[in-house]
Amino acid sequence: MPAGARVLDLCTGTGALALAAAAHGAGSVTAVDISRRALAAVWVNSRLRRLPVRPLRGGLAEAARGGPFDVVLANPPYVPSPVPAAGAARAWDAGPDGRIVLDQVCAQASSLVAPGGYLMMVHSAVSGPGKSLERLRAAGMTPAVVATRSIPFGPVMRARAAFLEAAGLIAAEQRHEELVVIRADRS
């Protein structure tokens, strides 16, 4: 990350990425989430560590008002779900194919990222990284998968396995997923 970079952490959760960016020399860090509890955690964590992170409640529209940013970090909800998300499940549920928020991030990437900047986004291969690459290209970005890691299903994916199998999103008896990190640069 460039020293002094303006950083946006979308779907920040507890703010781990925002805090890391602030600790590694970002000039400013905005941590965005729809959850009040998540933002309270960001606020507490940033104060305890004396790191300058600005919590902001909202989604992409609110985030875009402060942009564009040199670096955008995103760990959006990406777990396919049979019913609309409510309550705490909004942190991970993302519609039947897991792409409700991913598609929005891809479509708005070029307006969130400053020229010469980049987006780093993580999601499960179950949610179609090929689609993310296509949509980021369509938005004028230059994307590439820069890291992958296979992990056992966590509690949410284990509970959702029958739905994922029935939807054809995973193989029968599959209980591992590949996490994918995509970097998308803006010229």
From TrEMBL:
The keyword Nucleus does not apply. Keywords: Methyltransferase, S-adenosyl-L-methionine, Transferase. GO terms for molecular function: N-methyltransferase activity; nucleic acid binding; protein methyltransferase activity; S-adenosylmethionine-dependent methyltransferase activity. PROSITE patterns: N6_MTASE. It holds the Pfam family MTS. Residues 5-124 form the Methyltransferase small domain. GO terms for biological process: methylation. It comes from the Bacteria. GO terms for cellular component: eRF1 methyltransferase complex. Belongs to the eukaryotic/archaeal PrmC-related family. This is Methyltransferase.
